[in-house]
Amino acid sequence: MEIQIVTKLKSGETDLMSKEEFLNYIIDFAMDTEWGDLKRREQLRALFTSWCFIFGIDADTKECDDVLGAICFRAAFEMIEEFENYMVELIV
């Protein structure tokens, strides 16, 4: 069963977002985020936490580790262990 997220656009129309599209949005968001910016960092974690809850991703899985590695790499965050611990804090 594929889960999709329905979002309401400013025009009033609705749009569906798949698991992959949501993840790509998170990666794009991370690429525009400076790790030192607490507000953006918390927003990034909120997006990731939502993605995990919506799509049933557990913290201690290969999928979670792979996704966090991809986000960290694409956003050029250098402290992967600190990043991973921070990101999964609300889902463990």
SSE map:
Blueprint (H helix, E strand, L loop, with lengths): L4 E4 L5 E4 L1 H13 L6 H18 L6 H13 L5 H9 L4
Antiparallel strand pairs: 1-2
What does this structure look like?
The chain is mainly alpha-helical and 92 residues long. It has one domain (18-88). The protein is built from 4 helices and 2 strands; from the N terminus they run ββαααα. The protein has helices at residues 19-31, 38-55, 62-74, 80-88, and strands at 5-8, 14-17. A two-stranded antiparallel sheet has the order 1-2. Strand 1 and strand 2 (14-17) form a beta hairpin.
Radius of gyration: 13 Å
Uncertain spans, ≥5 residues at pLDDT below 50?
Answer: none
Q: Please give the alpha-carbon distance between the first and last residues.
A: 25 Å
What helical percentage do the residues reach? 55-70%
Sheet with most strands? 2 strands, antiparallel
Trace the largest sheet across and list its strands. 1-2
Question: Hey, roughly how much beta strand do the residues contain?
Answer: 5-15%
Structurally, the number of domains stands at 1
Number of helices: 4
Shape: globular
Q: Residue-averaged pLDDT, rounded?
A: 89
Structural class: mainly alpha
Q: Which H/E pattern describes the elements?
A: EEHHHH
The tally of strands reads 2
Give structural attributes:
92 residues, two-stranded antiparallel sheet, mainly alpha, 4 helices, globular, single chain
Summarize the structure.
The protein is mainly alpha-helical. The chain is built from 4 helices and 2 strands. A hairpin with a 5-residue loop joins strand 1 (5-8) and strand 2.
